[in-house]
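Researcher: Please predict.
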Amino acid sequence: MTTAPAVTGKNKLPKYVRQRSWGAYQYKRDVPKHLRVKAGKATVYHALGTTFMEMVKNLPTIDQQVVTYFASLEAENSRTRTLAIVKSHFGEQAAQQLDAGQLNTNLIAGLWDLAGRLEEEVEPDVYSNLLGASVPVEIITLQTAFDLYGAYKDADQDKKLKNALSKVQADLKASIGAVKLKEVALADLRREDALLYRNYLLARISPNSVSRYINVVRAVVNHAIQERGIVAINPFHNLKVKGAGQSAKDRLPLSAEEAEGGLVTMGSQEDHQAIYLTLWDTGARLNEVTGIVVDDIDLQNRSLSIRPNSIRALKTASSERLIPLSSRAVKALTNLCFGKEGDDPVFPRYGRPNGNTAASAAMMKKLRKQITDPKKSLHSLRHKKKDDLRNVGCPEEISKVILGHSSQEAATRYGAGYRLEVLREWMEKSYQ
């Protein structure tokens, strides 16, 4: 839900709020220029009440409704745009009645009148919907599935994910065609379509890359099936890719000597040293470490909370975790936290979207002076931690918790999880 708009302007009223000459408060907000034809108006108005306290109470709800309305106008679907226009002119109940096909004579007459008034302002499909007092049945397409998945994953706030989803959609369009991507119902897609997509990719990229792209499409379709209750079999499920698996590009773990040598190459830069030590001793992912803020570190308990924040999201739900810190990692991080507020990034140079990419480039340039094997990188520290835990007999489930791997065991999804000291015991055994 959106927060109330900031206080600005005359009489300290919040943004978009004005007081009428008779004392009542009104919400007034201009429709973005590119949406005015779809909305059928240039400005939206809403009553906020006759007293200041009523206005304060109603403003957040009204502002959220308007933001949602603008978002609905962005949709490519004439059905959604028609419902948004009806909601704007006649209210939520009228839009729901139109959507359900349960209209009374007054609403039908109102829609006819609205169609006449907006004939020159709205596109033909919307005009036809209003004149016919009906909207098309919603069809969940593969394109719709990507929209749903992107919204669920907050892709608009994650440039890397947004670009990845766009790339997959472009490949789908090239392989199975725009019609099957944007117009054919998801339930009507067939295994042959999935095979076309797979074979199109195999002709261009490596089998392992093909598997990764197929995994994305499978996740997108599964999300839509579950979210909208679609009765369908995911045609991308269990799609075999010949040659996928181990490859020459797979990362190898660093040896203890290589890890020590890598630390030396970080030189005197405090942030590079602290990032490297934290990666080494926790096995965390680079973006998890570069994106931490001061409040994520508990110096007293010597622990690190890896959780979503304003800097970066996490790869999976299981990535969110509380893990112990080694004494040397605590020392390195303490120096970088000094004098900062709780929501400040620990690593200012890299505490930003895609900051992990910049950190990787800078640190790998140093690491390559010591380690030239292309199959070994900063991520190899994570593989090293996995091996170190295994070599000291750490139970697999505890290892998964420490590294933020997902678990398929039902029993592990209940309760509060392993105590920090249990994790610390195994972490300390694995330090080398």
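Model: DSSP finds 19 helices and six strands in the chain.
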